[in-house]
């Protein structure tokens, strides 16, 4: 079963695009399922993530990694949380 990763984002967010590039470069789609969540669809999400996006959340554990992060920091986060 794949780990589900929620990426809190919104349209026209260049930082979100960068975060997705880092995620795609590091995490295999064989093991991880990406779900991009547009915070603009929810007042609660705007309140929670509005000034923090992009944020990567591991759905099963609830652990979050906020931007900025690079490839090494992403690998360290995933290894710490999941392994």
N/C terminus separation: 15 Å
Radius of gyration: 12 Å
Shape: globular
Q: Provide the β-strand percentage band.
A: 25-35%
Helix/strand order, N-terminal first: EHEHEEH
**Main sheet?**
4 strands, mixed
Structural class: alpha+beta
Q: Which strand order does the major sheet show? A: 2-1-3-4
In total, the number of strands is: 4
Which residues sit in consecutive blocks of at least 5 with pLDDT less than 50? none
Please give the oligomerization state of what you see: single chain
Q: Report the mean per-residue pLDDT as an integer.
A: 97
Count the DSSP helices. 3
- Helix fraction, binned, reads 25-40%
Written overview of the protein:
It is a single chain. With 83 residues, the protein is of the alpha+beta class. The protein has 3 helices and 4 strands; from the N terminus they run E-H-E-H-E-E-H. Strands 2-1-3-4 form a 4-stranded mixed β-sheet, with no helix packed on it. The model has no long low-confidence stretch (mean pLDDT 97).
Compact overview of the structure:
The chain is α+β, with helices and mostly antiparallel strands and 83 residues long.
Keywords:
83 residues; alpha+beta; four-stranded mixed beta sheet; 39% helix
Question: What's the helix and strand layout?
Answer:
Elements: E1 3-9, H1 14-26, E2 32-38, H2 43-49, E3 55-58, E4 64-66, H3 71-82
Parallel strand pairs: 1-2
Antiparallel strand pairs: 1-3, 3-4
């Amino acid at each position: 079963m794949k780990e589900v990763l929620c990426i809190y984002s919104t349209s026209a967010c260049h930082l979100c695009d960068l975060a997705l590039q880092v995620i795609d470069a590091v995490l295999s789609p064989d093991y991880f399922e990406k779900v991009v969540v547009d915070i603009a669809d929810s007042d609660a999400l705007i309140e929670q993530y509005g000034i923090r996006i992009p944020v990567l959340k591991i759905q099963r554990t609830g652990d979050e990694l906020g931007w900025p992060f690079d490839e090494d920091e992403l690998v360290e986060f995933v290894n710490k949380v999941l392994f």
